[in-house]
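Look over both lines:
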Amino acid sequence: MKKRILLLFVFAVHVLTAQEYFPTDSGVKTTKNSTYAFKNATIYVTPTTIIKNGTLLIKEGKVASVGKSVKIPSGAIITDVKGKTIYPSFVDAYTNFGIQKPKRTASRSRSTQYTASREGYYWNDHIRPDTNPIKDFSFDTKKAKELIKAGFGVVNTHQQDGIIRGNGLLVALNPNATNAYRILDTKSTHHLSFTKSVQSRQAYPTSRMGAMALIRQTYLDADWYGKGKMNHKDLALEALNTNQSLPQIFETNNHLDAIRADKVGDEFGIQYTLVGSGDEYERLQDIKTTNATFIIPVNFSKAYDVSNPLLAKQISLRDLRKWNQEPSNLAMLAKNDVNFAITTHKLKSIKSFHKNIQKAISYGFDQTKALAALTTIPAAILGNSSIGNLNEGSIANFIITSGNIFDAKTTIYENWVQGAKNVVTAMNVKDISGDYMLSVNNQNYQLSVTGSVSNPKGSVKQGDQKVKSKFSFKDDWISITLNEDSGYTRMIGKIINDANVMEGTAFDTQGNETSWSASKQVAKQQKKTKKGKASKKTAFPVMPVSYPNSGFGNYKQPEQETILIKNVTIWTSEKEGILENTDILLKDGKIAEIGKNLKARKAVVIDGTGKHLTAGIVDEHSHIAASSINEGAQNSSAEVTIEDVVDPTDINIYRNISGGTTTAQILHGSANPIGGQSAIIKLKWGENAENMIYENTPKFIKFALGENVKQSRSSNGTRFPQTRMGVEQMITDYFTRAKEYDALKKSGQPYRKDLEMETLAEILNKERFISCHSYVQSEINMLMKVADKFDFTINTFTHILEGYKVADKMAEHGVGGSTFSDWWAYKYEVNDAIPYNAAIMHNAGVTVAINSDDREMSRRLNQEAAKTVKYGGMSELDAWKTVTINPAKLLHIDDKVGSIKVGKHADVVLWNNHPMSIYAKVEKTIIEGRVYFDYKVDAKKRLAIKEEKSKLIDMMLNEKMNGGKTKVPMKRGDINFHCDTLEELKN
């Protein structure tokens, strides 16, 4: 009791020291500072600085000294911790500890909110750098105790709401102190994400690319505001400029978003610390290239319950792999020299934290790096050298353990925070686990003690028969009750020696008193230990990562080869037409030679007899390979770009190359009159997003007319414009403003950089081309007139199903038409569509392409081209050009692709039949001299997928049979993006 009173007094001294200027009316103000010394311990000063048989001296909540020969001052409270280990308490750099998540804004209105609701702040409610969590912070004692039990001493917390979220708060997990003492920093970090605030219903942004554009524009506006150029007060921008000096932490939900966030940061000279998602192993090289420090969660997936084969069949290989590969993430990051901290973020229960770290270690994660990821690295992220280590002068945050902190058998005894003790497990409790021979009433039993040191559990057997029993061990006293047919036997006793021999008194049902004893079975324990080693749970074999990490992915990227295809029928899409029995040489990624009897040293020779070779198909209008398609919350989203959200993991890339498509323009959707910028990509399956985008790509933007942009079928659309004539006025207004903006920019006068106006000015300067979603002839005429007024040319009308009505005017204006082969009657404004449209426009002198606008149709554009022969009588050569050279011309890449010509990129397709035949199959798709699709390899991949799924299912069955937790099988959601798709793909 005296000891407890002393500890309470010591703690009170600490609090008073922190608030020494406070008056006191409860007694004298003289205080006594206490000093603690822990001797004979193994001390981890840092993960790499270890002292054996050392002493840790603590004074006034700080590390006073640490070493082998520390002089202990008189009056110090000395604790001998021989055989025990002392570590710095862990640091979690990313939590929402003590901060209640705001509730989603409720509204009875069905109307969309387009403007901000906060006055005096930025124009977008999801930009909230002014949020300071100190006003909402409430120390969560229950959560703190859970974290202390797991070894944590300090957490960084913030309000996890909004795109730009405000600053962080650094808190010591000191349950009995006040906020005045335990809050270490009221502005420790600054936080961002791609997720909107729940406190506002403001629609913009609706997509990932919109969030990226918004962050960019906010940085530009903050810079402009900081220069004193704005004539109004903006508290959000002021806060952002103030917070720029803090460590910047950006939360992401997948490895693609991590790369995207880093891209934005690099544009503004900001190196974010990136909160990862646990799937970084899927693109390690790209993750490493960010040069970012990461904060990695350890919320590993449960195995699926695959006992039902029909349900198991629905699980994708990608999701099966996730469970298998995820625990290796930390090891793979560490081996690739990616700097990272570990967080409890996303864990449903703190209790699983150590188990998951131990699992990661069993998958090869180095223990020294694990300790660094929990101490020195998060401290470095936070820019605080007084935490995460036990150097002299650091805050006295440390844990005392029975041994290696990452060993499942290790016990955490105490976790000291700011020099105050928190008992996790009493340090003087004996470990009595093991098997014993129990003797009582002339009967022998087997007593097995399992469980933790602090909470042991006992079970009793006699021979093979389990005996009903109750067991407890508390304050060195053992209590056992046996319930047999003859009645109850109650035993009480103690451990009498270091060999854990138990002795005591027993009472039978009649109250007769006798003695009992239990001796530890050393031989059996040794046997058990030996068996334990043999049966020790080890990690399952980790499946290799493919690129992308799903079915049909490549384990290594195709190599560029010198390829000679002989005696093949070549469809040149040039004036040479069709060349029969001809050879073609592909070298250094280009078409090197075309002719007869060609030879090349060390070339891969392919016999093309009876086969056809064409240029790779070019799809002018596609929506595959993107994480989002529409940013439709504003009538203009010219500031956004599909290049930000290219998704190289989309299986439709592989499906498209299996149908001969090698190039695609990924267009923004048609949710608004002025849409976003395009991405022109090569379908290099397995590459990252950056390597898929064309080098020096021509600049394009999507415009749209008609029903979609005026929200004809929207139940809550109130956005201007709501009519076709309103669309004309809106576009005219934007170009008028862009013209004025461009003139100011060119004048040399200071100007506020506006990403939306920058894009529109590029159109006026003929640096960016418009591809416009269109149907009705009146609107087609209207946009050409608007373009004439501002002295530029519309590049392409896409869809253009009434193009046959205005083909002559289109030819005069110089605009191309990218249309469907035979789509009609799927909505009112296509009532007049006819399948002869392409042929009529072609005959009028318009450059005509056939596009897909559909992930399935883009796999068979060869057959779509053939329909122009049936409908309109186009020649086979002209028909084939609608999916090769003509779309290449519309995209301004015809100098590179679209035809078979010496010097062009070696993007070619080898067919087993006439390329427009319904029986034609692709044998090889080659891009820049690399074989990205081979039908023979494809067949092998299908078998490999089946085998791998079987192996993974067996592993999951094994996991379940051995008591592992499982989850219900689920089929991955899949969105088929079209022009009017308003949902964003959730990875």
Notes: The chain is about 25% helix and 25% strand. Confidence is low (pLDDT under 50) at residues 1-18, 27-31, 524-536. The longest helix spans residues 935-961.
